[in-house]
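worker-3 :: picked precorrin-2 dehydrogenase
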Amino acid sequence: MRAAHLDYAVCLRLEGRHVLLVGGGAIAEGRALAVLDAGARLRVIAPETTPTLRQWAEEGRLEWLPRRYQSGDVRGHHLVLAATDDTTVGPRVAAEARALGVWVNTADEPELCDFTLPSVGRRGPITIAVSTAGQAPALASHLREVLTAQVARHHVWRARLSGWLREHLPRGRERQRLLKDVATGDIGARLARGERKAAGALLRAGLKPWKTSGETP
Ligand SMILES: C[C@@]1(CC(=O)O)C2=NC(=C\c3[nH]c(c(CCC(=O)O)c3CC(=O)O)Cc3[nH]c(c(CC(=O)O)c3CCC(=O)O)/C=C3\N/C(=C\2)[C@@H](CCC(=O)O)[C@]3(C)CC(=O)O)/[C@H]1CCC(=O)O
Ligand SMILES: NC(=O)c1ccc[n+]([C@@H]2O[C@H](COP(=O)([O-])OP(=O)(O)OC[C@H]3O[C@@H](n4cnc5c(N)ncnc54)[C@H](O)[C@@H]3O)[C@@H](O)[C@H]2O)c1
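worker-3 :: tokens ->
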């Protein structure tokens, strides 16, 4: 069994960051979609790619260099993902990335990875991510399915409402109280039951402190 260290979970903000993907098969395509969704600037290096990756290249969503990985390719990137069918490539990419201080994931050699990828489910702004510290990817995938199915539409509304309130109200104890109410209090419970009118009334009452001080949106 592997050592008992747990992987450290983060959610990376990749907007505008340079990401290198080595490989262009099915696994690489999944990685590409995820980093593009996060707004990264993606370069793919692979002699062959899936039709979808080729199409994204033609549409200018990513840059495809149709060749094998070469020394030096890592330079200039913030993050590197390798997913090829050649077992000699991952270790080379990982060593070069390490030497340059660039974070690297190789799809099937956990001992070479600076970070591992969890199984991810999305509902609006909500992300469910399951990691098993590299021990059981298939179980991570199964749990992700089970857990994501539990995120209901009202959770998504509540997340969006909370985001709106955070954007429009100044920080402070009053705002915190209102946000907690949306998350776990009466407003949340009403929204969960589909009682949107009643929730709206509670919300308007909760917004009073800002109405009177003239700070409301
Ligand atoms: C979650 C997911 C995310 C993703 O890839 O995006 C992911 N693997 C997924 C599926 C999956 N992978 C494999 C199987 C076959 C069953 C099995 O072997 O168990 C299945 C199941 C399937 O395909 O259904 C094979 C496999 N995977 C790794 C090894 C090497 C090793 O363990 O040594 C081998 C053996 C290769 C071989 O024997 O040849 C390694 C890793 N796989 C990871 C992530 C990282 C740890 C995640 C964690 O901590 O849980 C890590 C360490 C590297 C990394 O970060 O990529 C994605 C589910 C996506 C989804 O459905 O949501
Ligand atoms: N982590 C996971 O979840 C997981 C699951 C299954 C498989 N894998 C692993 O991911 C890897 C990729 O799997 P796949 O199904 O996408 O493979 P694939 O055969 O569909 O694609 C391989 C890709 O690698 C490219 N390639 C080969 N040599 C290259 C080189 N020198 N430089 C750049 N690109 C090169 C090929 O052109 C092709 O695009 C495999 O090692 C597989 O074991 C990982």
